[in-house]
């Protein structure tokens, strides 16, 4: 009997690539890392791995900026992955909270070592998720994991600078290259839609 082929481990791929990006001499922005990761043929248009992608690239950039060792990043990515795997697919429409926005909360909580018993940072990580969700709610549905990933990364730049003291690169100019793969694409109603795509 032939063995069934195993499903590609996107979580493991994201972790391995983020550690590689971290070790490279050229610093990659969170947006550049996310774009590179989403190009993988196994990275679907819509999938729950986006919920890990957001905190993973943000933690990678933050650790590099803070001058932390690769071992620290590996531990933080492990925590972020474990937490993000609890955020199921279709969470946005079924539970009212997009996983990419929750990814901002995961990023902030892991970076600040926040627990349910923390005081100031407890509020902070919830603020990160809440304000990111507000940005997503302004655009309306239907779902788009790429759009919400972009929105989360845009928001994370200002949030990190203001609340975490981490100056991530801004990502003001984003042109989505995934609209042809998205049956529900809002096209010109999306701030990242690219006519030439």
Sequence of secondary-structure elements: HHHHHHHH
Give the fraction of residues assigned to helices. Answer: 55-70%
* Global morphology: globular
Radius of gyration: 16 Å
Helix/strand structural class: mainly alpha
Task: Give the termini distance in whole angstroms.
Answer: 44 Å
Kindly estimate the percentage of residues that lie in beta strands according to DSSP. Answer: under 5%
The count of domains is: 1
What would you note in describing this structure?
With 197 residues, this protein is mainly alpha-helical. The chain has one domain (10-172). The chain has helices spanning 10-23, 30-38, 50-66, 70-84, 91-95, 99-112, 120-137, 145-164. Helix 4 (70-84) packs across helix 6 and helix 6 runs antiparallel to helix 7 (120-137). The longest helix is centred in the C-terminal third of the chain and has 20 residues, at 145-164.
